[in-house]
Design goal:
alpha+beta; seven-stranded mixed beta sheet; three-stranded antiparallel beta sheet; 30% strand
Length: 266
Amino acid sequence: MIFNINNDHKIDIDKLLGIAKQAGAGILKVYNDDPENSSVTYKADESPLTLADSVSHQIIAAGLAELTPDIPILSEEGKNIPYEERKAWEYYWCVDPLDGTKEFIKRNGEFTVNIALVYKDKPVLGVIYVPVTNVMYFGGAKIGSWKISADGGVKHLTLSAKIDNWTAVGSRTHSSDEEAALLAKYNVTNIISAGSSLKFCMIAEGTAQIYYRHGPTMEWDTAAGHAIAIYSGAYMAMPNGEAFVYNKPSLLNSSFICSVSRVIAE
């Protein structure tokens, strides 16, 4: 499958998925090692950082530089690029080499590799790979959203908003009273928890119908999942209905809602 950026640039989806798989393999080498050898450090915001984060970043950065040498990369592990430089970018890769580091440390398998292509302020292509289960999700403008199972089965993800009873999905490590209050306004009959960007994938494949995150995330946390969700037919915006955008002066995101139909919280 080919993703057309413009007349001069095309992306081979299989090669892009291969980069995500290579990064996942690098993560699993660390994940399957003795936990005592998997040292954890902490960043300024007290979020954890492991050797697997760095290994995955190096694999993805090298792979993308070969695949699309003209497109810059913004990664969680290489994020110190001034806005004065970033604001001129037309396209860029937004990458989280290991999303769900806390889940990685807990050894529960709910962590992912996230790679997104952003055009100006909107993700137009997203890839999410789940190393432990060998499941791949991807989605983009004009190609739709897809799931590749561990056995190689391929499924086109398309949503139906005509569901009477909604399932809400939320974070394993973050929750708030505001989220509970919003869900109470809608016909939510079940609430489940999941780590990392898997929550977007659950929306895209119809396992859940609403994901409301009250509180900050970073752009690389959401870009790939945003693309996969909206190109399956989902809705994503800020709680007041305004567009959820990228490449902002601050890479910190506001709250958001991702759902099978338009939902306003404020």
